[in-house]
Fold this sequence. Notes:
It is a single chain. By secondary structure, this protein is α+β, with helices and mostly antiparallel strands. It has helices spanning about 5-10, 50-60, 65-75, 120-125, 130-135, 155-170, 240-255; strands at about 20, 25-30, 30-35, 40-45, 95-105, 105-120, 175-190, 195-205, 215-225, 230-235, 255. The longest helix is centred in the last third of the chain and has 16 residues, at about 240-255.
Amino acid sequence: MKKLRNIVLAASLLMGGWQAAMAEDLTIAGLGTLPLDSRISITDGKDNVMMDLFKKETKKKGYGKMARALMWSMLAVPPGMNLYPEEAPYPYDSLHLYQLVKRTVSGTYTAAVFVFSGTEDDFFHEGGRKAALFWREAFREDAGRPTSLFGMPKISTAEFQGFLDEMMKEKGDGSRAVKILTFNPWHAFRDGDGTYHWSQEAKVIITNEKGLSYPLWIYTSLYKEGNRYYMIEVNGSHEAADALGDSLVYGLYQLKRSSK
């Protein structure tokens, strides 16, 4: 079953039975609220059948070793974290989906929002202990923030492209390809309340196993609240990035934490 984010972007978030409302805030339980442009409609995908399909797919034996999972890990998952472990706990069990829609005179723009949350044990229980130690301290105001996190922030787009191509070649999946157009690797950002979050952004062209190509914008942010991590991944078209990006980035910086 070769269905993941491209299905959501194409159709699943438009299915009936979802709780939709015009709002200027995106509230993530346990973390806080992201203030967004009041012209953006937020659709809550809680309890939608697509989430169950995602969870079932990622729990298949060996899924995390496939080229598809490797591609998403490199484009969206913080270094050292494992979103596709072989054994429980499974980070995908925490998945919550939302859709952002902005209608303007020039068109309608949408993006899917994937929210994952969990403790250190949820994200690092299969290896990654060195990374776990880094992320444990990476959000403190007085924490040291190296300019290079596991080689990522200093890497050029061409170097990252070559690395991704080589890794996917090793998996033997020549039918799937990723062309990176722009790439801003993981880096820490100081929020309006003095706390920190980490983000990475890329615009790519993905060619799937059927030879179909489509543009994709991937913006991922990582927060820590207490002993839990919150990974927020936004997927949309390149045009959606232009229409929604400024509001999204502002919301990420101005997160109103539930604990404050």
